Amino acid sequence: MTRADRGAQALGIPGGVLMERASVGMSRAILDSFGPLAGRRVLVAAGGGNNGGDGFVIARELYRAGADVAVFATKDEYGGDAAVNLDVLRNLAVRLVGRDAFSEELAGADLVVDALLGTGFEGEVRGDLSGLIREINDAAAPVVAVDVPSGVNGSTGEVEGPAVRADLTVCAHAAKVGCVVSPGGDHAGRVEVVDIGIPPEAEVEAATTWTDAASLRGVVPRRTGAAHKYSAGSLLIVAGSSSATGATVMVGRGAQRAGCGIVFVVTSESAAHRVDAALTEALVSGAPEDGDGLMSGDAVEHILGMSERASAIVLGPAAGVGEGGRRLVEGILNGTDLPILLDADAITNLPGPGALAARSGPTVITPHAGELGRLLGTGAKEVSARRLSSARRTAEESRSCVLLKGTDTLVAEGERVAVNSTGTHALATAGTGDVLSGVIGALLSRGADPYDAARTGAWAHGRAAELWLERTGRPVESMVATDLFEYLPEAFAELL
Ligand SMILES: NC(=O)C1=CN([C@@H]2O[C@H](COP(=O)(O)OP(=O)(O)OC[C@H]3O[C@@H](n4cnc5c(N)ncnc54)[C@H](OP(=O)(O)O)[C@@H]3O)[C@@H](O)[C@H]2O)[C@@H](O)CC1
Ligand SMILES: [K+]
C-alpha cells in the first residue's frame, strides 16, 4: 500500500487528493451500511497521522449527510493534509471535543469511527491510545474502522496489545493484510474496499494476495479429450492404521471428487479390507504393520513400489506417530521425487522443517497451528499470534509449500503468500482436513504446481462448505466432513 501510494504521488497525484478520494469512498460505504445518519450522533476518534486525516474528511462527509458529528483529535498540532482537513472542520458546525468529553460523547454516540491508527502503526499501542481503544470496545455503539482496526498491525495481522473490534472496516485501495489474517482479521468485522484512484502505473505486485475465484482462473488442470485414467492423475495415499480407517477413506474420496483419475491406497495390512470396501473405485493394498497396528518402517519398500504407478503422494493422516512412522516418512521422502503432500502424523513425524529442504521433488505440508507449533518448536500459541511470519519462515526453512489451516488459511511458498477467501465455521469439524489433503493431492497428481494446488484446494474446500450451507440452510454445527463430497464438484465448476 505504501509503495502504491508513493507511486501515485510520484506520478503527480497529490496526497491530499488520494486522502479525499479514500475518505469520500469510505463515507459512502459507511452510509450504505449505517445510514441514513441524519440527526444521529457520530463520534470520530482521530489519531495523529494520515489515518486521523481520513477521519477528519469522513467527519465532514457525515456532517454533510446530516449527522451530529463530534471529533476527538489526539494531537494538538497537525501537519500536511490532516491539518488542512482539520482546519475545514473548524469552519463547520462539527464539534471538536477534548479528552475530558470523550467518554461522555462515546456513551451518547450512535456510531463510532475509529481513525486512530492505520498502516503507519506497528508494535504495541503506546500511551493514552490504549485507554481510548479499550473505551471504544466497551461502548455500545457500532464501530467502523478506517483502513485498519487501530492496534492491529496492518501488514501482518499481529495484535500485541489492545485493538479496536470493528463491525466494519473500510480499506483504501486494497484490503490490508491485517484485516484478513488472524488475529487482526478477527477484529475487522466486514471488510469493504474503496477505490482511491491509484493508476495502473503505480500498482505494485503484492507479496500477499487474496485467493478468490478470479485469481484461480486457468489454474485448475483440465482433462483432455484423449485422457485415460493415468493421464488424468494417479494419486498414492499412504494413510491410516488398523484402528483408524476413516481418515484414509476421506482423503480418497476427496481426491476422487477433485478429479483424480485413479487412487491407490496403502494402509496397514489389517485395515486394508475395510478401506477397500469403503472406496469402491480405489485400489487398496496392505503394508507391514507393527504390534500397534501402525504401518512400520518395513512398509517403505512396498510403498515405493506402488509409487511407480502414481504421479503424486499424500502421506500422513492417521498413520501414527513414533519410531515406525518416522522411518516411514524418512524412507518415502528419500525414496522418490514425486510431488508429496504431508499432513497430520507425517508432519508430526518430521524432526523439523529443514528435513524437507533437501528434497528435489515438490513438497506441500498442511499443518494446523498445533502441528506447525510442534514442527517449529515454538508452540501453537506463538504460531496463532504470528500466522503470516510462521508460515513464511516454515516455507523458507523447508523450501516447501506450506498451507497453514485456520479461518484465514494461508498458503506460503518462497516470497509469496495467498490468503484464502472461502470457508465457514462449519469446517471446524473432524475429517475436513483429510478431505482437503485428498483435494490438494489430486491437483498435484494432475500436474498443478504446489502453490496452485494448495490455494486451489483450499478455495474449493471452503467453497464446498459454503455451498452446503447455502443449499441446505442447515446450522453450521450440523455439517460433517463427508457432506463436502457432494459440493466439491460444484465448487470446482465455479473455477472452470
Ligand atoms: N496519501 C496517503 O498517504 C494516504 C493515506 N491514507 C491513510 O493514511 C494512513 C496511513 O497514514 P500514516 O502513514 O500517517 O500513519 P498512521 O496509520 O496514521 O499512523 C501514524 C500515527 O500513529 C502513531 N503511532 C505509530 N505507532 C504507534 C504506537 N505504537 N503507539 C501509538 N501511536 C503510534 C504515530 O504517532 P507518532 O509516532 O508520530 O507519535 C502517528 O501519529 C492509512 O492507513 C490511511 O488511513 C489514505 O488516506 C490514502 C492516502
Ligand atoms: K484505524
Uncertain regions: pLDDT < 50 for 5+ in a row? none
Summed over residues and divided by their number, the pLDDT gives a mean of: 96
General form: elongated
Looking at the overall shape, the CATH architecture of the largest domain is: 3-Layer(aba) Sandwich
Q: For this structure, what is the CATH class of the largest domain?
A: Alpha Beta
Strand content: 15-25%
User: Main β-sheet, in a few words?
Assistant: 10 strands, mixed
Radius of gyration (Å): 26 Å
Question: What count of helical segments does DSSP give?
Answer: 17
Tally of domains:
2
Q: CA-to-CA gap between the ends?
A: 31 Å
The side-by-side strand order for the widest beta sheet comes to 8-17-16-15-14-13-12-9-10-11
CATH topology of the largest domain: Rossmann fold
Binding site for K(+): 51, 114, 150
Pfam families: Carb_kinase (PF01256), YjeF_N (PF03853)
Protein name: Bifunctional NAD(P)H-hydrate repair enzyme
Domain YjeF N-terminal: 1-204
